[in-house]
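Two quick folds needed for the group meeting slides. Do the first one here.
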Amino acid sequence: MAFLYILAIFFISLDRLAKTYFINTENNIKIIGDFLSLDYAENLYIAFSIPVSPLFIRYLSLALVLIIIFYFIKSVKKSQVMLSISLFVLILGSFSNIYDRFRFGFVIDYINLKYFTIFNIADSMIFLSIIFLSYYIYTVDKNE
């Protein structure tokens, strides 16, 4: 379990380093031609650039993370390993993006899949934690 917590902290640290690099240099790095590159982008909105008031997003995100922290603490106390790791990853990814919103007024994105979207490691962590939480709720939670 400790290894997974350390791995999550590693990825969020990598996300923060990448965001710092791209906001300071705004460089573009091609990885696979035009299909995959690392490009600086400012995301003012939420997933897939759905337009919502930036102020509303800030405080709604913060409130949701505080609720998730409450459930994380409960899951740790109950020794629900899969649930607590999923919530921990969700909290870290969310805080990285919330930090951006409060500091810069937008989220820094840098992984560019040309024909799909541009996102960051924190977004990936949030997405993966939602997948694991869904699995947990669908399978494990049914049995309890």
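Then this one, please, same format:
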Amino acid sequence: MPTFAALDHIDHANLKVKVQYGQEYGDNINQALVFPTEFQALQREYPIFFRQSDDKKFYAVVILGLDKDENLFLQDDQWSARYVPAVQMRGPFALEIKDSQEGNLEQADPLIRINMDDARVSNEQGESIFLPHGGYSPYFEDMLQALRRIHVGASVVDDFFSQLTSFNLIEPVTVQANISETVQYTVPDVFTISRSRMESLSGDELHKLNQLGLLEHCFAVLSSSGNVSRIIDMKLRKANVLG
């Protein structure tokens, strides 16, 4: 079991974290869990789709590869993209919110924990967590933002999908990737935003979606579908290198 410790500016003043990704850190995955709080950044890099859990609850994922345990964005120990999904970006950190009122992080008391058993945690190499004279480093400010995206995203995800369902905006889709005449991939059991339903929404419905803050998320999901071709291109480049 990982050993998580509450992050402390005195006990961990000299602690560093190596910024790297790889199989040993659980990054060899072909899909990653994501949240609506990061859709705008994700849609520039990855295809966003929805899946359903065993209890029929929707959740969002991005496609990272086509084969099992394949992450096409991993290059050596780096993640080759302008934005890394928050669940993968957070590294050895976890955020616990105490005394938050209805998920309001401005009134919350965040407790940041760090996995001291994570191989990226070091006293010698990596990015500092704290500045020499106190305060968080720019590196850790980025990590804290990722943790907050996860926390807020997890708190709103059920309502987000409930609203989409009430507008009848979710539809099943089969994602197909043709690599060659003989090599084809199918990503089953995924859902997306219905483009035809979006086009038929009334002015009042569009206004309500916008008021709920859902409209931009719907457009982000629809826009992200173009990144399927990017995944295919990356797969072809990988096949050519290996071939």
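Slide caption for protein two: The chain has a mean pLDDT of 91.
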